[in-house]
Amino acid sequence: MAMIIEMDTHMRHTTEFAETLTKEQRNYAKEQMARQLADLLARSPRENLYWQESVTDLIDLAHEVYMGGRLVDGQGRAFSFSGIVRRACAVLHVPAPHNPYSMAYNARNRKGVRQTSFFSRYCWMMYVKRVSNPLNGTVVKLKMKNEE
User: Fold this and answer.
1) Distance CA 75, CA 80 (A)
2) pTM of the prediction?
3) C-alpha to C-alpha distance for 34 and 12, rounded to whole angstroms
């Protein structure tokens, strides 16, 4: 007995919020996101900053910034993707993934399934919620016992 499974063809493709913005708005958001990530990467791991979202979101963020080529070192060279990931994981106390490229690919392919891209959620916070630094909500600083 053969079983036939029908696909629901009435399902609508989910449009990401970022896709509804103008090119200028998306570029501005990418610049802001890169600037805010650069500020986080300049921090010390001893500051006890912890990433509160998924590791996939952090890798998605790092990949988006890397692809924009907006992070450069003191000699004007673009940071490598793996360098951004290593530094972000160290500063934000996240275990570094063995294959960040694979994670970035998987993050890109999750769009519209259960979770939209980190960039789209970042844009939504920026333009709908009017949050000037959406990355602030993704990081928490834990106090040490001697700071109490």
Assistant:
1) 14
2) 0.84
3) 32
